[in-house]
Design goal:
Chain B is mainly α and 287 residues long. Chain B contains eleven helices and no strands. Chain C is mainly alpha-helical. The chains are: A alpha+beta (590), B mainly alpha (287), C mainly alpha (313). The interface between A and C is large, with 56 and 61 residues.
């Protein structure tokens, strides 16, 4: 019988051991969760928002978004100042900040991180263009930097890529001076330098670890991670040798009013440690937040009404525990695209009819708890090109006369009551909510006699189908890469047709020529006028059935300080703070 | 001739035992009712209006809405009924596919022996070595999504155990005297196989059928969770998948309705399968 | 034929089976697999980039070579790198195996022990009310979807009552223990039904054997018969059943690991499925197939050693 006693004994011992381990300390620990596996720690592969965010805890770029300013403003980070731009808008000259050091790592001689120099950026950008590596951010600089495409071409079929070869477009003029030469004006170039794709890596480290570099992040950033392991918990610690960088004292009025500048002038980072938990399912994430194991969380659709009963205010239960709610619009648009390769959808009347049959306010109610903004066109509010008072004429909010109008248009299109139309497939990503959105779409189309079939796909499968043009309609969303309408309008630019970003294959010569013109203009009232014109075409031609611009709803515990919702949250953690005493006090109640 | 008499008495005996077992009888009744519901809903006589909006989103169960409403205000009861159609058809087609493959391969292997047998054994050993979840995924990838893919995926992954049993039984039976007698009067291979041997192993098929049926119903839930399930119509799997988000807001009725519906029929099949085995398996006879 | 020749023959049989498994995997995952380009290159990919990538991955090689690569991998376990995470797959499997086993192994041991105990009990009282009730509950328990157990268990026991951790995992003994208790309990509940049903049948089969009747006629006590004879003889079938399940423990528990955020192979596989990460799916398939083949030989060999009655083919 002895054998059977051992197991419970071990269990008891272990529970005791684990309880004693959880002592309250004065360490400032941030606990967050991400809903997806993190795809390694290499900046050039950080294509999704979550990997992006992890990479940016370790690595830094020349520029960053000012944490407390809206509209989004670029400020220097590893650069000393904003660059000097030549009059023709083609040459950008940066001075690199002095006294910035890489994290200590065995890859460096003596194990101590060396100083960052201009040459590191030359190397990092070449790496992004390396044809052997197939970095995911190549589109960002493709065809834009002088000599870089030629370099990439040259080595595409060679056995080894030579990084020693000089490239006209990216040069280190001296230790701290970096110069870019562009092939054509590209006003969004500076945004590219704030994206993790272009962050600085050290050549020694890349060469030392080879393909395992992805698991050995060594940057200049505020946090360190000695080794990245494929587990569900990533623990970062404060970088002890971080340069002098302080919490911003300037802020937009709304942030000042909220007292977000309280930490003004304090050395960053404010946290000692970050624990990132990968929680794929909604239920455990939500339950962990309620228990205080996670400091902030986006509200899942179906927890919405219990957490936020009247769509603006928190439920009493949560308020009592000191939970706060942050609502902020996100720079995105959801839409249902037509495949414009099909003759069927070249018929604009049909597209308009389907758009009018779709009740956007009902979809807003069901899927966004009535908090999103029905989209009139492609550009979201918050950036130039968005038209506040513009109403898309082919947009329905469930009014009966719009259904009549849709039916009439459908008849004019040659399909009275949907007769003669084939069954239209609607492809969507797998997942409960996506499926429900699809079912809703099907129901809406049935109102005017259009028969649809919903098909779920894994994310890559859907992308694959779009590329192969084997879709009819599909539901998808786009989030901004950078705060510029160009990033949205390019989704409808003909030459960007799939496998480019224009998955619908919409190709309108008028739109295309206007877009080309606008894309190379610097920010100006003329460009805004052009953007608005493009936005209007995108609305009235109905290349997609527009959905909504979403709002992000984030719940946070009272002990989390300085958190604000942002569309570009890379590097945000360095500004966050934890009130340890408050946490100790409040967690008792949870 | 004696075999026919023997098998008749076996079936008669089994039937009597089944009828005398009240639990088994009830289970049989439940299965019949579910089948009826499935047929009625397939012909549109029942729950034809499942897609209609009956009231507000997520209305709780009440006198008016027996099982409450879902996110689109659709009746959960109607969806559950419509889901019965999917579940029963998945169970039936899967069990049929697996029975056909299992019987044919098992019988052929057992009867002909030699190289044929070696090949079939190699084939199913290879097949079982691959975890069925991986096969399911691969098949749905190849077939695309939808009901047909679900049928095939589940059918193609569940025939091996039947095939093994049939093969063993056929080997046991083929040297019996009645088979030799059939050879003596000039019966060809297929005649012998189908007329003489198969009726004697039919009980295995029936027991296996009821087990495959209920396993398929349960597997549909997992497929739905993976997004590989039935598309564009309600199934118990998609209802349970919905519930995984709804539960935290207190919407339990969709989970409850689908789980209950599934529970009853799977339980009935299990009890029926046990009863069938008890009454049909000659090894257990009279014990 | 003696036992050793049998074992040798049985071992050699591995070769055609592995070749067959590789062929099936090749057909399912290479011939029909989707284009990896989209999976790896994301939303801004160009056609040219895709062609470059395909060449880089060796997908333009002839099918025969691709097949040989799979065969090679099933012996060397060198599966290359994941499409989505770019990690070395062998490392991923190595890292995920321990967390998976910390859930599945205790769950498996506990459920097997409990099931055998229950089966003996109900076999002792066969045909009585308690037998019927236990069988009914087992079957009833099996008739509920595993997803329902997980959703409810996590919400009620971990959150509402706060008895267990909601989710998570920590490496190293004994730190992982608080995290695995609830998943293990759910595993046990899920597997007790089928196990008891199976063990009960095996034990009953033995109870009705002639030797039991003889023993009883000799006047031996029922307890003595149950433990000394029946259990001993049923053990062969039980062990076979147990061993053949072992390879599946490595596969982990897809849903449990995903909901309880345990960084095991089950969660890894699920993630690979959701991101169409074919090299990982393929590697896991090869791995579990090879494990299955090895363990099925083990059972066969064990069977012949333990029970000489088994005819050697």
């Amino acid at each position: 019988m002895k054998k059977y006693l051992v197991l419970p004994l071990v269990l008891v011992m272990a529970i005791v051991a684990s309880c004693t381990k959880k002592q309250v300390t004065n360490e400032k620990v941030l606990n967050v969760s991400v809903p997806q596996k993190v795809k390694g720690m290499d900046p050039i592969f950080a294509s999704d928002r979550y990997s992006n965010n992890e990479v940016a805890k370790i690595y830094e770029g020349l520029l960053e978004y000012h944490y407390l300013k809206r509209p989004y403003t670029l400020v220097p980070n590893l650069a000393q100042d904003l660059p000097k731009v030549s009059d023709d808008g083609l040459t950008y000259t940066f001075t690199i900040r002095q006294g910035v050091f890489f994290h200590n790592d065995a890859a460096f001689t003596g194990g101590t991180g060396r100083e960052l120099v201009a040459e590191d950026f030359v190397y990092s950008l070449k790496r992004l263009a390396d044809p052997k590596l197939q970095g995911l951010g190549w589109w960002l600089i493709d065809g834009k930097i002088m000599g870089l495409n030629e370099w990439r071409e040259k080595y595409a079929n060679a056995d080894k890529v030579s990084y020693d070869e000089k490239i006209e477009g990216i040069q280190a003029l001296d230790k701290y001076t970096l110069q870019f030469k562009l092939t054509k004006p590209f006003p969004q170039f500076l945004y590219a330098l704030a994206m993790p794709f272009t962050f600085a890596v050290a050549k020694e480290v890349v060469e030392h670890y080879g393909p395992e570099f992805i698991n050995h992040p060594v940057g200049t950033g505020p946090f360190v991670l000695p080794k990245f392991e494929q587990t569900n918990r990533i623990v970062y610690t404060k970088n002890p040798t971080f340069r002098k960088k302080t919490f911003p004292c300037e802020a937009s009025e709304e942030f000042k009013a909220e007292g977000l500048t309280a930490d003004c002038g304090k050395q960053l980072p404010l946290l000692d440690k970050i624990v990132v938990e990968i929680l794929i399912e909604d239920q455990p994430r939500w339950l962990n937040f309620l228990k205080g194991n996670i400091d902030y969380v986006g509200v899942p659709k179906d927890n919405f009404s219990s957490a936020i009963p009247d769509s603006k205010n928190l439920s009493e239960d949560l308020k009592k525990n000191g939970v706060g709610l942050l609502i902020s619009p996100s720079l995105d648009v959801t839409y249902t695209a037509f495949n414009h390769d099909l003759d069927l959808f070249k018929n604009v009347k049909l597209r308009r009819a389907l758009s009018l049959a779709y009740d956007v306010s009902q979809s807003n109610k069901l899927f966004y708890n009535d908090t999103a903004l029905p989209a009139q066109s492609v550009v979201p509010p918050g950036i130039a090109g968005y038209m506040e008072s513009y109403k898309n004429p082919y947009r329905s909010y469930g009014e009966a006369e719009n259904i009549e109008k849709a039916k009439k248009l459908l008849a004019e299109a040659g399909y009275p009551d949907g007769k003669g139309l084939p069954e239209i497939t609607y492809d969507c990503p797998a997942g409960t909510v996506s499926r429900q959105v699809g079912e809703f779409f099907k129901k809406q189309m049935e109102q005017i006699g259009v028969n649809t079939k919903v098909v779920q796909n894994s994310w890559p499968e859907l992308q694959n189908k779009i590329n192969k043009r084997s879709v009819m309609m599909y539901g998808i969303a786009w989030g901004a890469d950078y705060p510029d309408a160009e990033n949205f309008l390019q989704l409808l630019y003909g030459p960007n047709k799939a496998p480019g970003a224009n998955g619908s294959g919409y190709n309108n010569p008028e739109f295309n020529s206007l877009f080309v013109k606008a894309a190379i203009m610097q920010d100006s009232p003329e460009r805004t006028a052009l953007y608005e014109k493009l936005n209007r075409i995108a609305a009235e031609e109905v290349p997609w059935i527009y959905g909504v611009h979403r709002q992000s709803f984030v719940l946070k515990h009272a002990w989390l300080k300085n958190y604000i919702a942002t569309d570009f949250d890379a590097g945000q953690e360095q500004f966050l703070n934890i009130d340890v005493e408050k946490k100790a006090e409040l967690s008792k109640k949870l | 001739m004696s075999t026919v008499v023997k098998s008749k008495s076996l079936w008669k005996h089994a039937f009597e035992q089944l009828v005398s077992d009240r639990m088994a009888l009830m289970s049989l009744l439940i299965v019949i009712i579910y089948s009826l519901v499935a047929v009625l809903s397939a012909t549109g006589l029942l729950a034809g209006n499942w897609a209609d909006e009956m009231g507000p989103s997520y209305a709780a169960p009440s006198g008016e809405f027996l099982f409450g409403l879902d996110i689109f205000g659709r009746s959960v009861l109607a969806k559950t009924i419509k889901g019965t159609e999917v579940a029963m058809s998945v169970g039936l087609v899967t069990a049929l596919i697996s029975a056909v493959i299992g019987i044919v391969l098992g019988a052929v292997a057992g009867y002909f022996g030699g190289k044929v047998d070696e090949f079939v054994v190699w084939f199913y050993t290879t097949f079982t070595s691959i975890p069925s979840i991986m096969l399911l995924i691969a098949i749905t990838f190849i077939m695309g999504k939808g009901l047909v893919a679900v049928y095939l995926a589940l059918g193609l992954t569940s025939w091996v155990s039947l095939c093994r049993l049939i093969r063993g039984e056929v080997i046991r039976h083929k040297d019996r005297e009645y088979v030799h007698a059939a050879t003596a009067i000039g019966g060809n291979d297929f005649r012998k196989l189908f007329k003489h041997i198969l009726p004697n192993v039919l009980h295995i098929v029936i027991i296996n059928f009821s087990l495959t049926f209920q396993t398929a119903i349960k597997s549909e839930v997992i497929l739905s969770y993976l997004g590989l399930g039935v598309q564009g119509r309600p199934s118990w799997g998609t209802m349970i998948d919905d519930a995984k988000l709804e539960l935290a807001r207190g919407v339990w009725w969709q989970l409850a309705a689908a789980t209950l519906a599934m529970f009853v029929v799977v339980l009935a099949f299990n009890i029926l399968g046990d009863a069938l085995r008890d009454s049909l398996d000659p090894k257990l006879k009279g014990k | 034929m003696n036992t050793w020749t049998y074992i040798a023959r049985r071992t050699l049989y591995v070769i055609p089976v592995i070749l067959g498994v590789c062929f099936l995997i090749f057909v399912l995952f290479n011939v029909f697999s989707p284009d990896p380009a989209m999976i790896m290159l994301g939303k801004h990919a160009t056609a040219k980039q895709m062609a470059e990538l395909r060449a880089e991955l060796g997908l333009d090689k002839p099918f025969f070579i691709q097949y040989l690569d799979i065969v090679k991998a099933s012996f060397t376990f060198d599966f290359g790198r994941s499409w989505s995470t770019k990690q070395e797959i062998f490392q991923m499997i190595k890292q995920g195996a321990i967390p998976s086993l910390t859930v599945t192994l205790p769950g498996f041991l506990l459920s097997t022990l409990i099931s055998i105990a229950i089966s003996l009990l109900v076999a002792f009282y066969r045909g009585k009310m308690i037998d019927k009730a236990v069988v009914f509950f087992c079957v009833a328990g099996m008739s509920i979807s595993s997803l329902a157990y997980i959703l409810f268990g996590q919400w009620f026991f971990a959150y509402k009552l706060g008895w267990f951790e909601i989710s998570g995992y920590e490496e190293g003994f004994p730190y992982f223990i608080p995290y695995i208790i609830l998943p293990v309990i759910i595993w046990v509940i899920l597997s007790i039904g089928p196990d008891v049903r199976f063990f009960r049948t095996i034990i009953l089969d033995e109870v009705y054997q002639d030797y039991v009747r003889t023993a009883r006629s000799k006047g031996l006590g029922e307890n003595h018969i149950m433990f000394k004879h029946v259990l001993k003889n049923a053990m062969v079938s039980i062990i076979t059943y147990v061993i053949i399940q072992l390879p599946f423990l490595i596969l982990g528990a897809l849903l449990l690991e995903s909901f309880f955020s345990i960084p095991g192979l089950g969660a890894m596989t699920l993630n690979a499925i959701n991101s169409s990460d074919f090299p990982v799916i393929r590697a896991m398939t090869v791995l579990s197939a090879v494990a299955y083949i090895i363990f099925s030989i083990l059972t066969d060999v064990l069977y012949t050693v333990v029970d000489p009655r088994v005819r050697l083919h």
